[in-house]
Design a protein that fits this description.
The complex is a heterodimer of chains A (about 140) and B (about 400). Chain A is mainly beta. Helix content of chain A is about 10%, strand content about 40%. Chain A has 2 domains: about 55 residues, no CATH class; about 80 residues, OB fold (Dihydrolipoamide Acetyltransferase, E2P), CATH 2.40.50. The chains are: A mainly beta (about 140), B alpha/beta (about 400).
Chain lengths: ~140, ~400
Amino acid sequence: MGEAGEIWSTGADGPYWDGLARGQLMLPVCGGCGRWHWPAVWRCGDCGSWDHGWQQVVPAGRIYSWTRNWHPFGGLESLKVPFLIGIIELEAAGGARLMGLVEEAGTPVKIGAPVAGTFGSTMYAGRAVPAIHWRTS
Amino acid sequence: MRPIAGIAAVAGVGVRQYRRGASPLPERGVLVRAIIDACEDAGFDPAQIDGFSSYGDDHNEPVRLMSDLGTRELTWSSQVFGGGGGGIAGAIGQAVGAIATGQATAVIVFRALAQDNSGRLSAAVMAHHLNGHMMAAGLVAPAQVCAIRAQRMFEHHGVPGSAVEAFVEAAYYHGARNPDAVAYNKEFDIEAYRSARWISEPFRLLDCSRENDGAGALLIVSAEVARDLRKPPVHILGVAQGAAAGWGDLLENDADDQYATAGFRSVARQLWRQTGLSPDEIDVAQIYENFSAQGVASLIDHGFCDYESAGEFCRVENLIAPGGKLPVNTAGGNLAQGFIHGIGMPIEAVRQLRGESANPVPGARTCLLAGGPGAPIVSSAIFGTEETL
């Protein structure tokens, strides 16, 4: 595991954070049954395999749900309210969902709206957290 | 397998509630007060308490209460996992399990919270769950997490906003008529609700529960012992905690058919199986609402209505005492009675079945408690009067 993975991993997701540090979206596929597992697992609960291949995925998907946040919650002082948070469904990764900040660039935010992501970071409580930032197309 | 109904009963309840930041004693002191209140309510010697159970990362280790209570011997202490209110009924289930197996004879189920000791509840709950994925998305508060689920329930599943409005209005209707409620004597102003400032869409300010300082305690003993105490026993007819596959701490990857729920489907199935009851046979309900829409999702999960019928079911006249089809949150709930991490909800269930509620439901024999919705672990219980056994 790289440095990013060591800092941010909450379990088996170290390669995800290492990928973001390189500007790549990496998600795990079970080597036994081919199922996309997100959040990442060490052992596939379906087939019992411990073998996972991390595959690069294009950061593009659709909004599964969203909220426009207006309250200045602690730690997010660097974000100007209101800001949009989306749950992004990735068809190319078996419907795995990522959460992320969304910019209403083209079509208005609604469930099903297509979005594309770029790599960056979000300041939380004075720390730069690696992030994918999404924009509606 | 031995049925749950008939094993244990709530014999006493106690609660001390204050404005947030205004607790006259540090947290543990308030908790001792609430426990003694519960014992006095029951006519029970506090020194005989031998077990404790809690939830929500409560900081008050039972062993530290022994000197104040005069505890002779501690034989049980436990807590349900999870940082939120999801474990509230589960804590009652642990008490029942301890009593059923002889590991304890008198268990206090409690929750205590004073801002000066434990900080803001919302921050504590979030600290339990927060990770880099959430920070990166700016998704760092319970209000936002619940808002994003609520948005899908409205936009994708078509639950009308009127259902949630009615749920909130019913809580305030009861709170306005309960002298112990923060909303006492304040009639609900629907225009003020609709125009309150946004917190995180679709939630405005009055969709969100606001924290109080305080402590609450329920004394649980065997059904036999309860019959000899001061108040009529309120029996635990069924209780379940857990999560189905496809629900949990999954970085918003809950199964598509569970995402816009409150997480109770498997727990509700267990409850109905344990008790042989159906939603029609529930007379009154205390539905933990951290946020308004999650309360409605909880009603849906327990089978009182579905996405399609939620608007029809959740009308104010259906949800208020005395005559509603299912009066909910009859003390005012977390929204309008007060919020000590939900401990007021089972306490109102007990008072309702004893006929002590400020908004009584005449002849009520069964009361559902749905615990904190949307949490990775959720739990529910059904209480009943003596005649339901």
